[in-house]
Design brief:
The protein is α+β, with helices and mostly antiparallel strands. The protein has a domain of 102 residues: LytTr DNA-binding domain (OB fold (Dihydrolipoamide Acetyltransferase, E2P), Beta Barrel). It is built from three helices and ten strands. It has a five-stranded antiparallel beta sheet with strand order 5-4-3-7-6. The longest helix has 10 residues. The radius of gyration is 22 Å and the shape is globular. 15% of the residues are buried.
Length: 159
């Protein structure tokens, strides 16, 4: 009976003696690749996903395709998302799950309950404790959360 050798890929960590490093830095090659290339970098084993172009929303006995470029803002409602695009649509998905599938250059999470299309923000007013009041094209005013202060500042170049 002959034995066949199977090549087993080497893990990103190594188990060794006390004088060897027990965990290698798996992120350092990714950082070098990201800095030297303009292509999106993904973790090993995860599929590269393109941002959504449309969102299928169930509405009674039909499915409406909401185009992402028409969306103005997103609002969380428990395990649903209110999508504001010309009119309001109710989509069964969490806000964090939906925002993850959208283009981060176009959509910004500003609060645990709100995300906005960056191009639709017309005015920012600084409030106490690092919060901002965002006024959209439609006249709607949304208050940002303090934990999203850095993301809001970076998205609008407030340094």
């Amino acid at each position: 009976m002959s034995t066949t050798r199977i090549a087993i890929p080497r893990p990103w960590y190594s188990i060794g003696t006390d004088d060897e490093a027990s965990v290698t830095d798996a992120a350092s090659p990714m950082r070098r690749d990201a800095a030297s290339s303009s292509r999106p970098v993904r973790a090993a084993g995860t599929p590269l996903r393109m941002p959504l172009q449309c969102i299928p929303v169930r509405s009674l006995d039909r499915i409406v395709l909401v185009q992402v470029h028409d969306i103005v803002r997103l609002e969380a409602d428990d395990n649903y998302v209110r999508i504001w695009a010309g009119r309001m649509y109710l989509h069964k998905e969490t806000l964090s799950g939906l925002v993850m599938r959208l283009d981060p250059a176009q959509f910004l999470r500003i609060h645990r309950s709100h995300a906005v299309r960056v191009a639709c923000v017309r005015e920012l007013q600084s409030r106490l404790h690092g919060e901002y009041l965002l006024r959209l094209d439609s006249g709607v005013e949304l208050r940002s959360g303090r934990s999203y202060r850095a993301a809001v500042r970076a998205a609008f170049g407030l340094g």
